[in-house]
Amino acid sequence: MQATLLGILGLALLGTLHAQDSIPVQADFQQDKLTGRWYSIGLASNSNWFKEKRHLMKMCTTIISTTAEGNLEVTSTYPKGDQCVTRNSLYTKTEQPGRFSYTSPRWGSKHNIHVVETNYEEYALVATQISKSSSSSIMVLLYSRTKELSPERLEMFTQFSREQGLTDDEILILPQTDKCMADAA
Question: What are the Lipocalin/cytosolic fatty-acid binding domain coordinates in residue numbering (predicted)?
């Protein structure tokens, strides 16, 4: 009985490790080239939060900078009702370049962040595995240096999101807005 339980736990651990490995990371990741201003173009997630707020979401701006310790300071400004809300997050570097961790002080959720693919000058595709107590979800973000991206890049985002198990109703190309865009300069 104990051996069976240990075997099941071992398989569960292997499954968790495999899930983390199943999300690729940009080869030869160059963190300094990721810094600067980005626009969120696409957002996909199977989280309850996304399902509840999806109809309210709009494009936002994100400023990425490197801290003295080599971590990423991520500042996103987005419209919420009649206001502009700014959220700051500190992504802690891991042993693998292009992978970061973050723990939400508000929700206590742990985020395993992967910079999946980027050419640094046009787009960045980022996938985040989120775990909180007994639940887990995935979030995929598509960033652009401009407010528009080619249909090929949008399709790449949609296809990658589907490969992560997300359905079409969990994938959103964010509506453009001029609101809160100037605040994040």
Answer: 35-178
